[in-house]
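Re: the request from the purification team.
They wanted to know what the chain is likely to look like in 3D before they choose a buffer screen. I agreed to run a prediction and write the result into the notebook, where they can find it.
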Amino acid sequence: MNKTTDVNKKAIFALFLVHFSGDFYLSFIRPLLPVLADKFSLNLTQVGMITAVSTLMAFLIQPVFGFLADRYRPRQILLISSLVGAVCIPLVGVVPAFVYVLLLIGLGSIGSAVYHPTAAGLVSIYAGRHAGLSMSLFGLGGTLGFTFGPIVAASFVMVYGLNRLPVTVLFGLLVFLCLTVLLPPTQRGGSKKNESIRAIGKEIGRVWKPIALIWILAVSRGFAEQAGQTFIPVLYANEGHSLVSVGAVLSLFTVGGALSALVCGHLVDRIGFKPVYYASFALTTPFLLLFIHSTGGWVYPLAFCSGFLMLATLFPGVALAQQIAPNNRSLVSSIVMGFAMGTSGILMPLAGRLADAFGIRPVLSVVAVIPLAALIAVRFLPEPERTS
């Protein structure tokens, strides 16, 4: 399909559904960590392994599919990848051993690594003249998925039990059927393989230093985010918070991050990227420390504020990378977002081992200082010329 000036509303809605459904099921993992830890008698190192497997498969391998997404548009792969997470992740509720939990979460997360760059690439094809609005709607799908997923998973398990979690697969099957109707046939990109590789080597070789710097800042931010979202649910559950309360905390964190993406996306057009980075990295540490050490009702507003500040540079960082390497947008986006999140995720077993030895709060308190320490790198970020 060639790009036209008219938006394909059915296709954009289908991609919205892909993003919503995929992130909806992917967000089941963290609120279920306390239940899985109790069922399989897991230590914090093993809890960190769950996050590591999830982020490794969902994010670390995204550049591979980002490379393919710049050149191929296979409808069948997008459909299958949207179904994988919907089937695999709920099945963790009935598996008999911890190794199967890791296997199913890994498979479900691979589905996420496939559909994210592929679907994002399709948005620009079907958006016509409304590329900005269409991409915002696509992003909104993922945000809503991560917002409702933790609450739905936690509430369902509280009411019906972990062993009935596979019932939620029915929603994923319904979405899959809708996608088969709504998603139009796609065609492969026109670039020749050898020419594409040479072009990538030339462009990325020219801009690898700023891309690496954005990646380093994304890893420092992502490590603090992953550690907080992995171990705070376990901490709060151990201190008597209900599973629904834990799910609400994670949802508020995500909502805060979604709002900051909208706010900071406008801010970088007006004041530049570096001021947003400075403010985000400087303020994340104090608010995250307050969140870690808060009790009672304060955990909810502080979860929102921490998510707002911590995720403020997520999408501006992607936008900055795309401006630096405009000919390989899917690839650099997957590097500074997916690959960065995957790198921070594989460090979670180490964080879990330290938490086993020293306690969750002391370790998270040290992790919270990382964004503040990373401020020194912000001054070296490039600042593209702003346009009206």
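For the purification team: The radius of gyration is 20 Å.
Please add any questions underneath this entry.
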